[in-house]
Amino acid sequence: MHGLVSLTDKRWFDHLSGLAAKSEGQRLDEVNFWRPKSQQAVRSITPGAPFFLRLKRPHHAIAGFGFFAHWQLVPFSLAWELFGQKNGAPNREAFRSSITAFRGSDPEAPGATPLGCIVLRDVVFFERERWLPWGSREDWSRNIVNDKRYELASEPGARLLSLIRARYDAAPELTQDFQLIDCDTRRQRESTSAVREGQGTFKLRLLDAYGNRCAVTGEKVVPVLDAAHIQDYLGPASNHVQNGLVLRTDLHRLYDRGLVTVTPDYEFRVSERLQDEWENGKQYYELERRRLRAPQEAWQAPSREALAWHGEVRFG
Fold this sequence. Notes:
The protein has helices at residues 10-20, 76-83, 92-103, 157-164, 199-209, 249-256, 273-278, 282-285, 304-313, and strands at 2-8, 27-35, 50-55, 61-74, 115-125, 132-133, 147-151, 187-188, 194-195, 225-229, 244-248, 260-262, 268-270. By secondary structure, it is of the alpha+beta class. It folds into two domains: 2-171, Archaeosine Trna-guanine Transglycosylase, Chain: A, domain 4, CATH 2.30.130.30; 195-313, no CATH class. The strands form four sheets. Strands 1, 2, 3, 4, 5, 6 and 7 form a seven-stranded mixed sheet that branches. A two-stranded antiparallel sheet has the order 8-9. The radius of gyration is 21 Å and the shape is elongated.
């Protein structure tokens, strides 16, 4: 079992820890740990592995942790759309200024390179008295530019593992296989509305899996693409990539209302109700029995069990 310790910008940390202080357990459901210049994917750990936040000089301490969910090159505008303040900035302009300061160029300029985004789930920020000193005694070299991987079963990594405590079962959607959810684990706000956690992470992982295209039409204009849950959202485990489809916005609305579906054989179907109730829908009937554009990676393909659920419970 391995974890990654990564150098963390203090301004980014301060903003997000301030947000987390307003929530239960000093926790945020997801954050974007972006790197302004690096275009290299994180390959040293796998989804679900712990990711520790190490503050630089003069602190030299572990000040929080999360769970690695995904890495992807993302345009500035999409990063802000998906994560907002959870990019570590209070507003869009502050986020843009932060990147400009690191790069020396505007991330929204024509031809600007995308951000290397490390998406973390279930992120906990420690209060000052809980920070764990982390330096040369922990095999941390001053020459480290980004991060270092540690084995968590032995020292000094075992001390990192102790920080996680009972939270190691976090981010259940990062497991290999999706199982239909049989109980509602959504958190509730005081107003009794359900909190939909990890939605930015869910959409980013799906866009990557489907090559930034609608699974039915092949549409590739990202602003009109949605991340659709197959089985309804019932908590973080529902955000598994196998429980999702990338759909054009209009198809997503029809899908949620049960007016279209995708069969377990990956065929797109359109309900007769579209014509009966709305006397319209010619453009959708033209898509009838179109074959789904499935992800290239077999393990990311939509769950046949979940698709069957949608066909039986929602479609008609």
